[in-house]
Every structure is written in structure tokens, then in C-alpha cells.
């Protein structure tokens, strides 16, 4: 068991390993990054990596899981607010765009490398993502039930439409482009709501 849990800068070892793995996976690809490169970049031993994560596969899973946890917590907060459903959906739809852009390496790594996960981890990730999509869909269904949104398009299709855009951000979004993350998020959220209005 590793004796120290932080590095010279006070950063906990798990965070150092995740930061190193994220950078290397983004630069080189998951399959071309070795455990040795990760531990050297993090300044820790292989024993430390295996203590905290068990495997490179676990690191890949955590890269995505931490982003999904953040987004799930934020979605739950938006969904639970005492505001009109259109406002809650708009904020949730924009937020997932902004948080994805803020963690673009994580999102890019995951969608390029998800097929490298073990079947068990792959199943776990799909369940976690399904929970997020179900909570988002519930907002759409609430609006459809109460007449705020048109029921003509199924909530499932609307969810797929929005998250198709979100999942591809890493392939085309550039920080030096014409739109800030928030501007882009607001425009995509407005497209979503326009598709739902009666």
C-alpha cells in the first residue's frame, strides 16, 4: 500500500494519476498509452496505480465516470428546482453542453475508447448514462403531459437528438471558434425547445 497519498504539490495521488492518464489518452490514444507512461507522468509507482484503480481499464472508466457524476448531480439540481419545466429543461440542456466542453478531453477519450472497456465496465457505463438520459427525458415528458411541449415527437427521439449533438462536440468544437461555450449551449438548448413547442 502506498505510503503517501499526495505529491509534492499536495495533489492526491488518484487525481494525479487521472490527470496524467487523461492527458496521455488524449494525446496518444488509450491503446497506445502504457501503464508505465502513466505512472511516470504522475510521478508515482505502479503499485500506487494498482492500489487506487486496479487497472488501466479502471482509469479509463473513471475518466468518463467523473464527468458523468458531475453532469448527473447538476441535472438532478436543475430538475428538482421549483421553476417552470421549460426553464428547467433549457438550463439542463445548456449545462450538459457547457460541462462537456469544459471536459472535452474526457468526452473525446471516452467516445474514442469506450470499446476498450471490459464488458462489465461497459455495461456499468451504459447503465450510468441511461440513468442520466432517463432523468433528462422525464423533464420532456413532464412538459408533454402538462401541455407545455408538443407530444408529436417522442421524448426518446428528442433525447437522442440532443445528446447526438453533445456526444459529437469533441469532433468539431474549437475553443478559438466564433462561439463561447455558453453561447453554443444556449443555441443548442433553444433548438431543442423549438422542436418541442406546440
TrEMBL record:
Residues 11-71 form the HTH tetR-type domain. GO terms for biological process: negative regulation of DNA-templated transcription. Gene3D superfamilies: Homeodomain-like, Tetracycline Repressor, domain 2. The keyword Glycosyltransferase does not apply. It comes from the Bacteria. PANTHER family: HTH-TYPE TRANSCRIPTIONAL REGULATOR RUTR, HTH-TYPE TRANSCRIPTIONAL REPRESSOR KSTR2. This is TetR/AcrR family transcriptional regulator. It comes from Streptomyces tabacisoli.
Amino acid at each position: 500500500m502506498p505510503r503517501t497519498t499526495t505529491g509534492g504539490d499536495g495533489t492526491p495521488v488518484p487525481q494525479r494519476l487521472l490527470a496524467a492518464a487523461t492527458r496521455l489518452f488524449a494525446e496518444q490514444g488509450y491503446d497506445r498509452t502504457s501503464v508505465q507512461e502513466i505512472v511516470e507522468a504522475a510521478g508515482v509507482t505502479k503499485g500506487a496505480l494498482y492500489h487506487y484503480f486496479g487497472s488501466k481499464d479502471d482509469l479509463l472508466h473513471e475518466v468518463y465516470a467523473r464527468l458523468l457524476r458531475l453532469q448527473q448531480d447538476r441535472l438532478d439540481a436543475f430538475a428538482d428546482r421549483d421553476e417552470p419545466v421549460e426553464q428547467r429543461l433549457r438550463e439542463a440542456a445548456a449545462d450538459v453542453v457547457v460541462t462537456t466542453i469544459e471536459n472535452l478531453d474526457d468526452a473525446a477519450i471516452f467516445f474514442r475508447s469506450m470499446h476498450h472497456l471490459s464488458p462489465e465496465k461497459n455495461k456499468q457505463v451504459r447503465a450510468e448514462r441511461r440513468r442520466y438520459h432517463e432523468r433528462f427525458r422525464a423533464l420532456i415528458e413532464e412538459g408533454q403531459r402538462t401541455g407545455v411541449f408538443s407530444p408529436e415527437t417522442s421524448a426518446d427521439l428528442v433525447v437522442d437528438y440532443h445528446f447526438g449533438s453533445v456526444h459529437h462536440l469533441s469532433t468539431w468544437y474549437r475553443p478559438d471558434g466564433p462561439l463561447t461555450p455558453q453561447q453554443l449551449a444556449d443555441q443548442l438548448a433553444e433548438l431543442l425547445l423549438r422542436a418541442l413547442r406546440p
